[in-house]
Amino acid sequence: MLGVGAWSAFETRTTMLAERKEGMANLVDSAAGVVKAYYALAQSGKMSDEDARRDALERLAAMRYGDSGYLFVMDSKPVVLMHPTLPKLVGTQVGDYLDPDGKRLFVTILNAAKAGGHGFAEYRGRLPHSETAVPKISYVTRFAPWDWNISSGVFLKDIDTVYYETLVGHLAVVFVIGLVITAAMLVIIRNVRASLGGEPDEAASLAARIAAGDLTRPVAVRAGDGTSMMAAMRDMQGRLRSTIGGIRRAAESIAAASHEIASGNHDLSQRTEQQAASLEETAASMEELTATVKQNAENARQASGLANNASEIALKGNDVVSRVIGTMGEINDSSRKIADIIGVIDGIAFQTNILALNAAVEAARAGEQGRGFAVVAGEVRSLAQRSATAAKEIKQLIDASVERVNNGSALVGQAGETMTEILQAVRRVTDIMGEIAAASEEQSSGISQVGRAVTQMDEMTQQNAALVEEAAAAASSLQEQAARLRESVSAFQVGDGAAAGAGAAAGVVGGPNAAASSGRVEPALA
């Protein structure tokens, strides 16, 4: 603001000086115009040169501007030709006249017009009726035909007076404004200190300590102060200490969780042993299945021998049945077709049994949400349709065979005795086949046991895999959390007895309800 005031005063002085120069230059230029007019009259012969010069000087002596502005004329010697206020100088050579600073003032004025025919000259002159020397400026223009230098000068005292008055006024305004700003700043500083609750440096130092993790130093707060920033930082420090205590207890909980994981791994080991036992049971079932298969093979050999005996007995009745060979041939053909269809039905029954076993395995594995059972059920339905078709064909063939058998019934009667022996042999074969069927049932039961054992083994394997994945994920998560907790807690200094101090801080900050009776600080963490 001081600079603005000084600049404004300087601009005022510059403007006034420019106006003075412009007025002075206009007067001198007007005088030069008058001189040129008289010179033109002399050149035209209307006036003599001497009269023209005399009249021109008289005209110039009468020209004024302002209260004290005037013109004077001198030649280049320099000799004063006209001076309205100092007529005693007229005709005097003034080249040696000096101003109070020792400068030849009239020579200075002449030198200002040498370069361009006109110009300004600055020097110091005495005020009228005074010995005081003050700055003065003159404007001069040269009229070469008559060797005249027409000049006028003005004092700068009044301009400087206005300049200094303006400068002092601006300085006074700046001083008043400065007082107002100072008072406002004092009020603001007082309010800021009240809001901070202490010195700004102290608040900044406290904030820096808390940011660095140092929560051990007490915060000094004025009595009854509960709204300042220092009071808020005290409460914040207390809550931070409470939070750190909770984090440390959380670390202990993580340690307990790690112990539980170890216990889970032990359970996993026991289940693995159970799985091994199930595998042993599976092996035993497989051995039983092998024995059953061997028994079935032995029965099959016995059935083969009996079939041979039946063949020999059938030879005895060869003569009897020779007459029915043709009819029985047709029956034999139909029987072959029946055998083929029965084979298909047997295959379907076998596949149905396998699919039923698979369906049981899928149901046991997936529980109520087994989607694979639907596929197995579809296959069962398809085989059932094939069984129905085969049964229909069997019925048709049986009908045809019955008709042919009726045609050969007379011939079959003659072979009754022989067929009786054959029937006995066939009965024995039937008995053996019954044993084979029983063995097959045992074999099916053994296979079911194998399936159940495999199902149990698969379920336990899946459970073990899930437990392993969960244990690995939990262990990894616990390790990361433990590392983060250690890193976070290590950044803070809460002093000795951090847990107890944290609880106490929580009680101070939050009041009597800040901590539960158990001493836990989960609410503060939330």
Automatic annotation (TrEMBL):
InterPro entries: Chemotax_Me-accpt_rcpt (IPR004090), HAMP_dom (IPR003660), MCP_chemotaxis (IPR051310), MCPsignal_dom (IPR004089), sCache_2 (IPR033480). Residues 250-479 form the Methyl-accepting transducer domain. Gene3D superfamilies: Methyl-accepting chemotaxis protein, PAS domain. It holds the Pfam family sCache_2. One of its GO terms (molecular function) is transmembrane signaling receptor activity. Keywords: Cell membrane, Membrane, Methylation, Transducer, Transmembrane, Transmembrane helix. One of its GO terms (biological process) is signal transduction. It is a multi-pass membrane protein. Belongs to the methyl-accepting chemotaxis (MCP) protein family. This is Methyl-accepting chemotaxis protein.
